[in-house]
Amino acid sequence: MISISKTRWGAVIILACAPWLMAHDKKEKSKAPGNQLVDSGSFGVFVSGRRVLTEKFDVHQENGVSIVKSQLQENGSDVSRQKSNLQMTSSGELIRYDWTDGTSSLVVTPNNDFLLEKMTTSPSAKPAERPFLMPSTSAILDNNFFIHRQVLAWRYLATNCQNESTGLKCQQGPLEFGVLVPQDRTSLRVRIQLVGREKVMIRGAERELLRLNLMGEEFSWVLWVDEKDQFKLIRVLIPDANTEVIRD
């Protein structure tokens, strides 16, 4: 077992809702507002040390629905080239996912035992449909939206860890998830594994963060989250693409 010190699990409660995470203060829950902000901010995306994109995002809960919104801006531009909106139930089941780049658009919704994707290449075009034999609990990991990786990390921690009196304890070894990449119109299996605490340089200052490895058949990423601040994603390293993502 890997032990992690106690911390506030509000963000994980909203997005993952593992049963053992629900044992928080009932009085505090009853006072919670209908619209509750979980996280907001931006990520800088750097390729070969040069900033190329900024992802602005916010994560909130509205009337029991978890909503993850994100928009991408190219460096030096105030125009959002891509926008996404992910909606889930409190138990992590997909309600709806929307994406657009201003011309093309897509929507993913559950349809019985399938996830149904409808993609439109222009405002006047007829949507092309594609079903995926995947449950509604499958994760969305769309291209370029790193906040989706944070949501998956939260789900991993909620699924793989137990909140004990001595602190949070996580099982060793990777955990596998089925995910959908809507823009690529493909599904795949990914694995996440907790490595442990590491000291990482962030904007010239050393910070102790929790490292997770995110792996697939053709990729290997490193995620660092802050266990002292709701396990928010702080840094992503993609060695094969010489790419680094840092929370602003």
Summary of the model, kept short:
With 248 residues, this protein is mainly beta.
Write the SSE topology:
Elements lengths: L1 E3 L5 H6 L10 H5 L4 E13 L2 E13 L2 E10 L5 E9 L5 E7 L4 E7 L2 E7 L7 E5 L6 E2 L6 H14 E4 L2 E4 L4 E7 L4 E17 L2 E11 L4 E7 L5 E7 L4 E5 L1
Record field, number of beta strands: 18
Helix and strand pattern: EHHEEEEEEEEEHEEEEEEEE
Which value, in Å, is the CA radius of gyration?
A: 18 Å
The main pleated sheet reads as: 15 strands, mixed
- Please count the helical segments: 3
Backbone structural class: mainly beta
Q: Uncertain spans, ≥5 residues at pLDDT below 50?
A: 3-32
β-strand amount: over 45%
Number of domains: 1
Shape: globular
The mean pLDDT is: 86
In helices, the fraction of residues equals: 10-25%
Strand adjacency order, main sheet: 9-8-7-6-5-4-3-2-18-17-16-15-14-13-10
Task: State the separation between the terminal residues, measured CA to CA.
Answer: 33 Å
Overview of the molecule:
It is a single chain. The chain has one domain (2-247). The protein has three helices and 18 strands. With 248 residues, it is mainly beta. Mean pLDDT is 86; it is low at 3-32. The chain has a 15-stranded mixed beta sheet. A three-stranded antiparallel beta sheet has the order 1-12-11.
Supply the key terms:
mainly beta, three-stranded antiparallel beta sheet, about 250 residues, 15-stranded mixed beta sheet, disordered N terminus, about 55% strand
